[in-house]
Amino acid sequence: MSVGPTSTAPSSGTSAFGRGAWLGIGAGLICIAVVVAAMAGSLAGGGSGGGHPAGSAASGAGSVGASGSASPAASGPVDVASYLLPARVAPALALTDQDARPWSLTADRGQPTLVFFGYTHCPDVCPATVGTIGQAMTSLGGAARAVFVTVDPARDTPTWLAEYVKYLPAGFTALTGTDAEIASTAAAWHVQYAKEETGDPSNYGMSHTADVWLVDAGGSLRAKFPFGTGPDVMAAVVRSVQADIGAAGTPGASATSTTSPASTPTPAPSEANADDDITPAGVEIVSSSIWSGPPGPIIFTISINGVRLDDPTMQPTVQLATMEGATASGFLSATVVRPPGVTAVSFVAEVPVAKPGVWRIVVRALAGGRLLQGDAVITAKDPGTSAAIGAPAPTVHTPTLDDVGGDHWAVSTDPAPDLRLSSTSTTDALAAHEPFVLIVDSVRFKVSPVCGRAVAMARYLQDRWPGVAFIHLEPYRYSVVTDTPVLTGSLGDPSLADPAAGWGIGGDPWGPLSVPWIFVVDGNGTVRAKYQGVFGSDDVDVIVSMLAAGG
User: Fold this and answer.
1) What is the CATH number of the domain that holds 329?
2) Are 439 and 536 contained in the same domain?
3) How do residues 63-97 score in pLDDT, each as one tens digit?
4) What is the pTM of this model?
5) What is the 3-state secondary structure (H, E, C) of 462-491?
6) Residue 315, domain extent
7) Mind giving me the DSSP string for 108-169?
8) Which of 2, 125, 404, 501 is the most exposed place for a label (fewest CB within 10 A)?
9) Residues 171 and 152 occupy one common structural domain
10) Residue 272 pLDDT more than 60?
């Protein structure tokens, strides 16, 4: 069976706004306005915010992906300590504000700051979080401010943000920048984000970390609030931190002596090896999930002076290094990948990473007779018991429509399912020696802000790759009462379905609340890539394209 894609290529998403985009953002601004207006009404007393059930838990221990924990609103004394972080200097935050002026956290101290990463076209999580932050600032009587950092700089220009902030509560600053600036800022804050193509160039989505951070008046990172934390909780923590600083005597004094090693710049390996014959290059990581353990894919791009190099003749090599600059591998060859119908070139290196944590990769390549070298920081996740990259895929059967007599409610909680995603089982694909992509996600039972988005993305990718089986697996046990799925257990403690458990996502450090997951399996039945939490369509498109080309 052919695994080639259709001729319709995904858009780069950088085209100018069209009428549909204006309509989309108009709806988003209306949503913001409704949330803000609600502050003066029934929402003034607090609440979890965001429309997600209180008590739903985080996406997984140790994950730097989108936090799905929805903390209940305070109904009694707030456990402030549970939100606090060890005081350290906040990561760098220096971008361009809505007035097209440079703005930096270090140059604008003096007031507690709530920092949130999102995008203006966001239909749900961002408006809810902005509303919650606004309520917290209102409760604090103007004693705190907020910074909204876009993860979608292509659409969120200063001109656009200037209109957006008109609908936000007083005290908000909106920041944007170049792709490279946003990527480096997000990495410094351990924020993940990825583009989700939908087939409509003006209507793509962004999956992103949904936490809110508190930086005190002296520039110290002091607390992190998971998605769904109530405004009263945020306000209580801010007041506690302010009181702590007041007792210490000098705002931020504790931070100057407790800076963590991670916040202290260390020389990059490329700087240590630089000489006059090397041209500095930019390296941007595309992979939204990188795993410790056996060699796994790291997707990256190369640029010079901010201009991406889409040269398929380059043959980059990659070396893993510690943050202190010690080498952890030899130089490994990377595969050049240009998905059909796409002009952009990506590179894939399969790199073994000894343990979870923060690492650096050094990239070298020849281009136009010049030796390029650059580096980038990566964060390797702990795979736990999830199906291992490089190992045979689990042989557990995933249910199909044929298995349940054509009743789509029995295999999908999506009210308008794409039946193609339930027509093939993983065991069918393994027996036929055909590649497949398994999507473990739920549209109805959302235990994190990103739940349901993987299913939507799979529809787009299935159109791109009609010869590859995209298989949707509902992660949880449920029963169907007439046409309504009813969860076994609760959103805070759901029961994994046997096939999902068979792929190992229920063990430490993840657990049943860590969905969504995606696994990419080649025609030999080997797991070649996997993603958890936040991921984008480019990740999967590049890997499937590599497999289709025999990689």
Assistant:
1) 2.60.40.1930
2) yes
3) 333 333 444 444 568 899 999 999 999 999 999 99
4) 0.72
5) HHHCCCCEEEEECCECEEEECCEEEECEEC
6) 269-381
7) G-SS-EEEEEE-TT-SSHHHHHHHHHHHHHHHTTTS-EEEEEES-TTT--HHHHHHHGGGSP
8) 2
9) yes
10) no
